[in-house]
Amino acid sequence: MKNAIFKKVNWFYSLFSIDFYLAVTQQKLVLPFYHCVTSQPKPHLKHLGYYRSNEAFNNDINFFNNHFQSIEIKKIQYNNIQQKTFHISFDDGLSEVYSEAVPLLLKHKTHATLFINSDFIDNIAMFYRHKISLLIDEISNSTSNLSKIVTFFDCEKQDIYQKINKLNDENQISEIAKLLKIDFDLYLLENKPYLTHKQLQELQKMGFTIGNHSKNHLNFNAISFEQQQYQLTTTNRFLQTNLKINEFYFSFPYGDENIKNEFFEFMYSNQNILYSFGISGLKKDDYSKHLHRIPMEYDGLTAEQIIKFEYFYFLLKSTVGKNKIKR
């Protein structure tokens, strides 16, 4: 629905300035988020679309710094924001953040937080969605492998990519990888898609914040409360033990839709989570410590277009009382 509205009214919401939207909405904090910055995505990324080109990201930073003030995550005071401010974050702990994004952030003196999955640090394991991108890359470049997968699924060729994209069973993914002769461990060794412990320490010294994005990126909407607790506490312990972090920030993998209040209460009261983050765009929330970020990885769209639309959509939803998530 949101994308459909975007396409139909982009001529209209673009007419108004950022200052106009700020004055009307009084939403002075924007939280853009990314996964990766690269102009040449590697096979584990390029079939997912979760990246921003170097040029686009550089333009994004210029836009945000021209209209807002960059602040550290620890200085966020959501109920007492007086100035136009922004804070950039990255999910999944991908290595290109260190090699491609950080030099641009330092150049423009822009703060950022990197939310990591502790299982993937030092390239010990791989996120299953990145494995899926590798599978797609392999069958895209080999007709013989495509034929193998058609036989495996017993389906038509045109249905293959949809079926692979829907995979979420690690055992089945491994079975297909074996069929295609893809070695995930070798790929991790040779390509090092994730940040290392040493890089995280260096990023801390540069002034960047390291946050919690769960243990191995499970969908919190699909697991039990006990599993949610385990996912959160495991990575908090990792951050505390390896990086001496005692104040924590958490971003939900796949967003926070349908997450029960008991988990929010557990985060704030038991795990010293100062702020948690969703991905619902510009939106209010019943929990003042839970903030919503704006996805920025839209190919062909500028930061100005994305942010203006978020403000416009916020105003549109406010007319029917839908600009705040009620828990």
Task: Describe this entry's structure for a reader.
The strands form four sheets. A five-stranded parallel β-sheet has the order 7-6-5-2-12. The chain folds into two domains: 2-124 and 195-325, Alpha-Beta Barrel (TIM Barrel), CATH 3.20.20; 128-188, no CATH class. Helices cover 47% and strands 13% of the residues. The relative contact order is 0.15. The longest helix is centred in the C-terminal third of the chain and has 19 residues, at 225-243. It is globular and about 60 Å long. α4 crosses α5 (95-107). The chain is built from 14 helices and 13 strands. The model has no long low-confidence stretch (mean pLDDT 94). With 327 residues, it is an alpha/beta fold.
Instruction: Indicate the proportion of strand residues.
Output: 5-15%
For the record, the CATH class of the largest domain is Alpha Beta
Number of domains: 2
Question: What does the largest sheet look like?
Answer: 5 strands, parallel
> N-to-C terminal Cα separation, in Å?
22 Å
Per CATH, the architecture of the largest domain is Alpha-Beta Barrel
Helix content: 40-55%
Strand order of the largest sheet: 7-6-5-2-12
CATH fourth-tier homologous superfamily of the largest domain: Glycoside hydrolase/deacetylase
Number of separate strands:
13
